[in-house]
Amino acid sequence: MTGSYIIEARGVWKSFKKVQAVKGIDLKIYKGQFIALLGPNGAGKTTLVEMIEGIQKPDKGEILIMGKSWKGNEDKLHRILGISLQETRFIDKLRVSETLQLFAGFFDQGMDRVNEITELVGLEEKRKAFVVNLSGGQRQRLALGIALINNPSILLLDEPTTGLDPNARREIWEILIRLKEKAGTSMILTTHYMDEAENLCDYIVIMDNGVILKEGTRYQLLEEESGAKVVEFTAETGLLPETVFSEKLPFRIHSEGTRERGYVTLSDFENDLQEFLSFLKSNNISLKHMECRRKTLDDLFVELTGRKINE
User: Fewer CB atoms inside 10 A, N or C side of the chain?
Assistant: First the structure.
């Protein structure tokens, strides 16, 4: 393995009964990189992360962490990983400080580390609160604190903000942004939120149906689409005819929930716009509203999969 890779997955496959969850994935992660595994529910993100965590074993292929496989290296790898699962179950009648002390003890960490983590995740005022009385956002911050208690080289977070309100999501983001500023920690974040991937991660891996569709920095993912524009429009005459959504047409038009609104990506905006307007005219479609904007990751995901990420 190349020394600069902190994690490497080589030809990894995993199935559960008749469901092929991960299909031959290759992935390389560098030290200090913050990576988003971006995709809808069922994309294979959690299964891939669980194999990296050692919770699941690949059916085929291998995963190396700092050049080591899980077999025979369990204790060493557990000590360099920080893990936060989709759902963390706590002992309700333990206080926040007691919970952190419990996990700190597993890694021979003392009260100095507990206090440091309590401050980092913003739970100073909740030190003596019973876990059962924490809000959803506070519980997630506690789960993140537990994942960080051993000062891990690699942080693995599985959908850490799902179900949280916008303020609670932002609080988790702020913690991770502060962590990112400290050199050395690598992070894999699974999410189905585009804004989360863009704001927190250097590198984005788009997954669906167990495969990687595309990967790169946000700039790299959209660079080849730099001349592309998205045209959103609303029909003047009510519903758009079903025929305009045919894949056989020169422009792939997507509906925006109803057939009154649609959007289309024009790869070469200057040359394609006039042709698009002529296409609408030939189909007797008059527009009430039209707006042009730059292409986003949401648009890219729709092009790759034919649907929005949260559908």
Answer: C
